[in-house]
Design a protein that fits this description.
- This protein has 264 residues and is an alpha/beta fold.
- It has a single domain, classed as Orthogonal Bundle (Cyclin A, domain 1).
- Helices cover 59% and strands 9% of the residues.
- The protein contains 13 helices and six strands.
- The protein has helices spanning 2-31, 48-57, 59-62, 66-82, 94-108, 153-161, 168-181, 187-199, 201-204, 206-215, 226-239, 241-247, 249-258; strands at residues 84-87, 121-125, 129-131, 136-138, 140-143, 148-152.
- The strands form two sheets. Strands 1-2-6-5 form a four-stranded mixed sheet. A two-stranded antiparallel sheet has the order 3-4.
- Helix 4 crosses helix 5, helix 5 (94-108) crosses helix 7 and helix 7 crosses helix 8 (187-199).
- The relative contact order is 0.10.
């Protein structure tokens, strides 16, 4: 009996190697997406009250199929469990954790690997905080050396509640993904990096940049550098997708491919 069990395990391992080393790279090359996204032997359950908060705070989650809602809930629960939340002169509530986690899960829902080791701590201030590094007030930042994502809760909440194309959570988490895409060979990172290479042409090419500026859709901060350009266009992608698609259909499709987004 033990021999059959051992053989079964061995076969499963061989098939796993074949899938990840041979089949998936071919699939990735052909379709520009991971072979699969969700495979969880046991789905993490969250409290019904937490589900109610997610439904009220995220139209994205509310409109998912029941099956994908369970995947979303699983990822939110895993995110909250995986990362350390630290409040600076503010109490971090469960609702705050859910809104931050939901923002991140929404952004990364098209990626198989989403619990990245590039950050460990989520630090929350009540309002804009003073940085002794550059002697300036910040609303948020990603600090790769400290492995921390930092938010002003006032500004995070403001961006989350309004559809003004300024969303601090999406902005800073996009910086994390950008950094990740330059460091990892994971399929999601490879796709992100390849598509961003195409997207950054809109920043590098003066003619294309001027076309963007003429429409006055992206705020001026987008043209600070490539990192901020990417973060700003992701804010627009989630907050006003219909306008984005109408104004810049080709760029919109690039962003959609970059994060393997399929929930429009």
């Amino acid at each position: 009996m033990f021999v059959f069990f051992f053989i079964g395990i061995l076969i499963a391992l061989v098939l796993g190697v074949v899938v990840f080393r041979i089949i998936e790279p071919i699939y990735l090359l052909m379709f520009n997406k991971p072979l699969f996204l969700f495979w969880y032997p046991i789905l993490k359950q969250i409290d019904p009250r937490d589900k109610t908060i997610l439904e009220g705070e995220f139209p994205y989650y509310f409109n998912l199929s029941d099956k994908k809602k369970r995947y979303f809930e699983h990822r939110v629960g895993c995110f909250i469990e995986h990362y350390n939340f630290e409040g600076k002169e503010i109490e971090v509530t469960q609702e705050m954790k859910l809104i931050i986690a939901g923002t991140y899960v929404m952004l990364t829902f098209g990626m198989r690997n989403y619990l990245l080791e590039l950050f460990e701590n989520i630090i929350i201030y009540p309002t804009a905080y003073y940085s002794t590094i550059n002697q300036a007030y910040h609303k948020g930042e990603y600090n790769p050396r400290m492995k921390a994502v930092v938010f002003s809760w006032e500004d995070f909440q403001s961006g989350h509640k309004t559809q003004d194309n300024i969303n601090l959570g999406l902005h800073e988490f996009t910086h994390v993904l950008h950094f990740y895409s330059r460091k990892s060979s994971d399929p999601g990172a490879v796709i992100f990096f390849d598509e961003f290479t195409e997207i950054e042409k809109y920043f590098d090419d003066e003619y294309l940049t001027n076309k963007l500026k003429e429409r006055n859709y992206f705020r001026d901060y987008a043209y600070t550098n490539k990192f901020e350009f990417l973060a700003v266009i992701l804010e627009h992608f989630f907050e006003t997708p219909e306008i984005f698609k109408k104004e810049f259909p080709e760029l919109f499709e690039r962003v959609k491919l970059m994060i393997n987004y399929s929930e429009l």
